[in-house]
Amino acid sequence: MRTILYLLQKEFIQVFRNKSMLPIIFIMPLVQMLVLVFAATMELKKVDITVVDFDLSETSTRLTAKFEASSFFHLTRAQLSPTETDQLLLKGKANLVVTFPHGFEQDLKRNDQASLQVMVDAINGSAAELSNAYLQTVIASYNQKIRAQMLGVPKFTPPEQVNVIPAYWYNPELNFKFYMAPGVLVILVTIIGLFLSSLNLVREKEMGTIEQLNVTPIKKYHFIIGKMMPFLIIALLDLTFGLLVAKVVFGLPFRGNILTLYVFTSLYLFLIMSIGLFVSAISETQQQVLFVSFFFLIVFIIMSGLFTPVESMPVWAQRMDLINPIYYLIRIIRNVVLKGSGLLDMTSELLRLCGYGLLMFSLAVWRYRKTV
Amino acid sequence: MIKVSNLEKSYGNQKALKGISLEVAKGELFGLIGPDGAGKTTLMRILVTLLLPDQGLASLDGLDVVADFRKIRTMVGYMPGRFSLYQDLTVEENLQFFATVFGGTIEENYHLIKDIYVQIEPFKNRLAGKLSGGMKQKLALSCALIHAPKVLILDEPTTGVDAVSRKEFWEMLNNLRHMGITILVSTPYMDEANLCDRVALFQNGSILSIDTPKNITASFSKKLYGVKVETTAQRFECVGLLKELSGIDSVFSFGESIHITTVQQNIDETTVKEYLNQKGHQGISVGKIEPSIEDVFMELMQNEGN
Fold first, then answer.
1. Which residue has the higher pLDDT, A176 or A327?
2. Residue A144, SS3?
3. Do residues A63 and A98 lie in contact, with contact meaning Cβ atoms separated by under 8 Å?
4. Domain count for chain A
5. What is the pLDDT of residues B183-226, one digit of tens each?
6. CA–CA min distance A194, chain B (Å)
7. Which one of A24, A51, B32, B103 is least enclosed by Cβ atoms within 10 Å?
8. Residues A350-369: tens digit of each pLDDT
């Protein structure tokens, strides 16, 4: 016990003597929370739309005014030839081009239907779909209105209609920041846990200090625990700091129990650090550790459901998430923060994190050899 | 105290130790002498339980290095060739750290390191990385001694250390030996061999000879002459010329002078001098000299080659 305490003391002395550590510990959470949460948003705002109106009728002007009134669109009116329209999209000056052909209103009145052309820049597929959907919504609502106007007040009662009134639970305003902030917190503790502990161990190899340490009677698991605890404490500190920033800056609601969150995060850190220490036990230099850790980090983050819903991935990819630590914690932390889930609501996640953590810890202890 | 028999170790196809045997008595200061890559570090790393031997046995105080490695780790003090203390901890923190991981305190064994530690104590709050080479070695020795080991294993402790610190360091080793600690030390410097009780001459993973430095030099069988020349360029030419002279057994450049050995009686100081004069070299002096460990080493290496 005395040995572990002394190992901890030694690690803390070294961490705080390293001049680049304090900025990393305190500035990183601040930057991640303030920049990433705002930057990583799926909401579309200010889609550039250009309206080319060859009809200049009452109907086309009214519809154009509807587009303009929507907060999603930033509207420009122009009289352009088809080639000029193409150029506009090509140069990226417009995301959407709507063209009213000559005789649009006339067609509508005579034939009861009229067509207009919509061109969408679809380099970013999901953004294109989303902006087209916005556009269709505006047109559809206008459609209903002009039908009513043209036909006059219906003489008979309209047929039965199913009206859907959605209620968005846990995030009623669909605030994207509430969804992102917990995820970004996971990335934060992951970076601290994974990199700081694994780089620290392999540094002992690079500096040669491990040679001296290995001839001491120090126990393997003492040594590994000594490498984990300081960064576990630092990561939990950063989690607290990040939560405070989220609360103060964008009013993140916290519905769950903070202790639940700490229990899950600690288990998660135990797992992710074991992975990190395992990687550094099989590496010789900090460079190798960085490469391997980065590879896994990127794969884990992209598959974790931080940016895109896990449900939209193919089934085999969803199965792979069973070994993705980040996937677990992101789900857990969103549930705890936004839903208020407790330990008992997530027993399966709890057990999996424990089992997975113990497995990786055993691997790390086993692979760290004092004798070559 | 240290017993090694038929020890073998390979790295891939490279044989680092080709079946060596040696014994070191309790309280002996034993030197491993030999060039880089001779296998000294490999032997030491096996003895301190950092490497597993492929073949053969090694034991310290009757404890096997493979089976009883845990016990060995508590009774051996090791100083690796590369400075291996924490550069970002202070002198005192390093010492405290190593005392603690061995489950002891600095005070318990302070008497062992007192003479050494007082020299670096004025800098006890300095980071170890900021110490000079000589002071780093003193700190490393203190850290290796703080748990009162029975055996001290030092891998090239004086490499890269200035001449004064080297001398001081050997005096410290001498004092430790008088306290009853068995010391195994390796060095590439032949002159340091004379400071050991006994030495083993290492070459290519084999031991050429084990004996006291005195006996080793006495075993030198040939006549040895030293040739002194004036310039470096001249020295190179003379080495070439002397190799052509019949009756000369070996020619080696030893720093400023050339050492030659003869096997025939008809060659002596005057014949060598006249020969070089004839070839147009002036200012040459030739004299009979006492062999050093290095001369023996060269001779043994030559025999090995043949």
1. A327
2. helix
3. no
4. 2
5. 999 988 888 888 999 999 988 889 988 999 889 888 887 888 88
6. 22
7. B103
8. 999 999 999 999 999 888 87
Q: Work out the average pLDDT over A214-228.
A: 87
Reference A247, options A297, A181, A192; nearest CA is: A181
Q: What are phi and psi of A120, to 5 degrees?
A: -120, 135
Angle at B34 between CA B32 and CA B39, to 5 degrees: 80
Summarised one tens digit per residue, pLDDT across range B16-66 is: 999 999 999 999 999 999 888 889 999 999 999 999 999 999 999 999 999
From edge to edge, which strands make up the β-sheet containing B223-228? Answer: B248-254, B257-262, B223-228, B285-288
DSSP state of B128: G
- Beta-carbon contacts of B206 under 8 Å, excluding residues fewer than 6 positions away, are B18, B19, B20, B39, B304
Model pLDDT, residue B212: 92
A62 and A206 assigned to the same domain: no
If asked whether residues A139 and A187 sit together in one domain, one would say no
CB contact under 8 A, A216 and B101: yes
Q: What does CATH list as the number for B221-290?
A: 3.30.70.100
Whether residue A242 is found in the same domain as residue A122:
no
Check whether residue A177 and residue A145 sit in a common domain. no
Q: CB of A51 within 8 A of CB of A78? A: yes
Look up tokens 């993973």; give the residue. Answer: B205
The chain-wide mean pLDDT, for chain A, equals 86
In terms of DSSP bridges, do strands A47-53 and B76-79 run parallel, antiparallel, or are they unpaired? unpaired
- Mind telling me how many Å the CA of B207 is from chain A's nearest CA? 24
The residue of chain B with its CA nearest to that of A372 is B51
Q: Do A213 and A76 share a structural domain?
A: no
Could you give the CA distance from residue B228 to residue B259 in angstroms, rounded to a whole number?
Answer: 9
Min distance A285 CA to chain B CA atoms (Å): 16
What pLDDT is attached to residue A298? 93
Does A6 map to a domain?
no
**Among A201, A212, A372, which would you mutate to test the B interface (most chain B Cβ atoms within 10 Å of its Cβ)?**
A212
> Is the same domain home to A206 and A346?
yes
Q: What is the CATH number of domain B2-217?
A: 3.40.50.300
Q: How many CA atoms lie within 13 A of A253 on its CB side?
A: 14
The domain containing residue A217 runs over which residues? 173-367
Residue B19 burial by Cβ neighbours in a 10 Å radius (0-12, 13-18, 19+): middle
